[in-house]
Amino acid sequence: MSVRELKNFVNGAQSAATSGQVSDIINPANGEVYAKAPVSSAADVDAAYKAAAKGFEEWSQFTPGERQLALIRIADALEARADEAAAIESENTGKPLSTLVEYEIAPSVDQIRFFAGAARNLEGKATAEYARDHTSSIRREPIGVIGQITPWNYPLNMAVWKFAPAIAAGNAIVLKPSDTTPASTLWLAELAAEFLPAGVFNVVAGDRDTGRAMIENSIPQMVSITGSVRAGMEVAKSAASDLKRVHLELGGKAPVLVFADADLQKAAAQIAIAGFFNAGQDCTAATRILVHESVHDEFLALLVAEVKANAITGDPSRDDILYGPVNNVNQLERVQGFIDRLPDHANLETGGVRVGDKGYYLEAAVLSGLKQQDEHIQNEIFGPVVTVQKFKDDEEALRWANDVQYGLASSVWTSNHTRAMRFSKGINFGCVWINTHIPLAAEMPHGGFRHSGYGKDLSAYGFEDYTRIKHVMSYIGD
User: Fold this and answer.
1) Predicted local distance difference test score (pLDDT) of residue 270
2) Judging by beta carbons within 10 Å of its beta carbon (0-12, 13-18, 19+), is residue 396 exposed, middle or buried?
3) Which residues 6+ apart lie within 8 Å of 244 measured at CB?
4) What is the number of alpha carbons within 13 Å of residue 422 lying toward its C-beta?
5) Strand-pair partners of 246
6) 256-287: string of b/e by CB count within 10 Å (b at 16+)?
7) What pLDDT was estimated at residue 124?
8) Residues paired with 302 in a beta bridge
């Protein structure tokens, strides 16, 4: 198999890194190198930001309607080339080819179209005389040049979450994808370039040093990252030295509360999917399940049966799998470490073993008997592993649900409407699903609290994060 050479995309064209350094890009489905990608230096990052600054000068003068049209055309082009995008993303990540168009490419198209509409729906207070003899109005303007960093779990989809609202608002961007999954983001930038002025959508590939240069550069007025808590904290500290705006979507440890009055079979079936989709490599995955003690054993048996039947891993070309490999060998070792360190008071109910000797496949694992302060409960595993605990009453369920450092997503499974509403208020997480887990809508915000970060993706709230507000007051007296 030939090894492809990937290049940065800067100022509307492919661009090699000035250092000449490259890194191996590995297909996690087979562990083989399929591409070489640039390891961009601070000089490469600076060149991309300068291109973005020039692109912003032109793009910021486009009307909202003109920006909308460009985004609609990008969405149409992505939709027309959905199968090509899926093939690139499958090789990029090892995701099942049979479900990529439905679950990731089609939603990405929809999200671009949503932000195309948002471009023409800027909001602010009505122009009026809030002070006698003075007329005030609000201008909602683009911020300028935005630096963005995306993770390896949803490379193309997260690139859409970043670029679409930023560009819809009139900004120009420099985006750095994860060092293990740059291929689909570079492809997306090239696709979008047909409909955008040069310099509006730039992509630089690289490692942690590249990411550090992205944040430390003086040109961007805002930086946005989806990644780990550690990375988010480093970004926030670095950005603070230059008073850059910061947008952080970080880790998660979603509590999934199953009460005795829930439809246990339905809950087990849906949670088995929501916990293991994308190999559990999702900040919102249904990985921390808390079940009322009166139905704990029954639910655990149902869940294990569902996992064995449906949470199947294997080669991404197969049609009968739920998820593919873990993204990279380091992540595989990290996940296996959690299983190897399982305390004596806990049980491995099923799975947890590596599958095959090629690629990074791991059987879906269900852990039970863990205590609230165990690392498996407190820390994000980010792999095909879920935990099941038993709680005695509503008070304990809520306390344990909130007793982690994260605050991104959660779900409540009950037939009691009052309980569902009470827990939706009490749970300290940015999203609360009721009798479901993991669906998203472009119109609704996604983002968390505490160590899960701040700022919103998707929705009008996510769009507004990429704008600044200016007050204009005019004297109209004699």
Assistant:
1) 98
2) middle
3) 215, 220, 221, 222, 223
4) 11
5) 223
6) bbbbbebebeebbbbbbbbbbbbbbbbbbbbb
7) 85
8) none
**Positive or negative CA dihedral for 125, 171, 77, 6?**
negative
Q: How far is CA 467 from CA 34, 119, 424, in A?
A: 39, 11, 30
Exposure of 196 by Cβ count < 10 A (0-12 exposed, 13-18 middle, 19+ buried)?
buried
Catalytic residue among 104, 283, 349, 431: 283
Token representation of residue 32 = 């083989």
Among the listed residues 89, 104, 249, 349, the single catalytic one is: 249
Return the C-alpha torsion angle 64, 68, 71, 76, nearest 10.
-170
Mean pLDDT per segment of 10 residues, for the chain of length 478 residues?
91 93 96 96 97 98 98 98 97 95 97 97 91 96 98 97 98 98 98 98 97 96 95 93 95 97 98 97 97 98 98 96 96 97 97 94 98 97 98 98 97 98 98 97 96 96 96 95
State the pLDDT at residue 478: 87
Q: Which amino acid is at 393?
A: D
DSSP 457: B
Residue pair 39/25 in contact by the 8 Å Cβ criterion: no
> Letter for the amino acid at 23?
S
- Contact by Cβ (8 Å): 445, 438: no
Long-range contacts of 414-419 (CB under 8 A, 24+ apart): 414/257, 414/259, 414/261, 414/262, 415/261, 415/262, 415/263, 416/259, 416/261, 419/259, 419/394
The token pair that represents 421 in the structure block: 């509403």
pLDDT confidence of residue 1 = 59
Least Cα distance to 453 among 126, 202, 223 occurs for 223
Q: Are strands 172-176 and 145-149 parallel, antiparallel or unpaired?
A: parallel
DSSP string, 369-416: S--TTSHHHHS---SSEEEEEEESSHHHHHHHHH-SS--SEEEEE-S-
Taking the C-alpha atoms of residue 337 and residue 8, their distance in angstroms, rounded to an integer, is 35
Q: Which of 188, 184, 163, 203 is nearest to 89 (CA)?
A: 184
Strands in 107-144 per DSSP E: 128-131, 134-142
Full-model pTM: 0.96
Q: Measure the N-to-C terminal CA separation of the chain; round to a whole number of Å.
A: 79
- Is 431 known to be catalytic? no
